[in-house]
Specification:
The chain is an alpha/beta fold and about 260 residues long. The model has no long low-confidence stretch (mean pLDDT about 95). It starts with a helix and ends with a helix. It has one domain: Metal-dependent hydrolases (TIM Barrel). The chain has an eight-stranded parallel beta sheet with strand order 1-2-3-4-5-6-7-8. It contains 13 helices and eight strands. It is about 45% helix and about 15% strand. The protein binds zinc ion (ZN).
Length: about 260
Amino acid sequence: MDLNDVRNLKAIDAHNHIFHFPKYDNEMQLNDLETSWKVACAANTDKIFISTMEGVCHTEMVESENDYLWNLSQEVDYLYQWVVIDPRNENSFLQAKRMLNNGKCVGIKLHPREHNYTLAEFGDKIFSFASDFGAVVQIHPEDSATWILPHADKYPDVTFLVAHMCSWLGRAYADAIEQAKHGNVWADTSGSASYCNVGVEYIVNRVGSDKILYGTDGYSSGFQRGRIEYAQISNEDKANILRFNAERLFAKTFEREKK
Ligand SMILES: [Zn+2]
């Protein structure tokens, strides 16, 4: 595989967002679906996995946003859904029960910081539920990535996708992937921390590229794509990150679609 093959490879953006309602729009981050998709296409992407910013940032909107994305993802080819759980909201568990391993739902999205809770309090409740579904859980880190290890080691049937690679203590992502007893910790490149000098390279050198997903958080996808395309890692590693790892991890979702 040469660099041109990498450039021509359609990416799967496993961590993206859209804004649903103008009343919550931030002037600097106004990505409705159409905008997000244009930006993703410019970065040669053919699938985006989404939670809405309203669902992630406003606990009172979790349920309505989950329903909104469930319906939207049935209509829009390139769109996939993370179902948001707020552990204090029983209805969000009922929604996840309906949506997981169904339709175009790829897993559970957690944002303890925006929703104002901690995994110390609610980890067991959430991950025992996730375990019943063998779910992938995308989580915004509360601390350096190794904070996930007690949960990952306790729930081997859950895949823990720690977002925003290189944030907090960057090398902790390599530590967490390496030290997880069941090999069930993954990371995504979303956010600005992975732009740091040799961050992506350090982690790939330590633990390989097999458990790293491409994600943009909806911020300047072309910038993130360029970070991977021009990283000092092999072209095979770049292709794994941009697409092949997601094809592998979410194979069941993509198979469901073909039926
Ligand atoms: Zn995000």
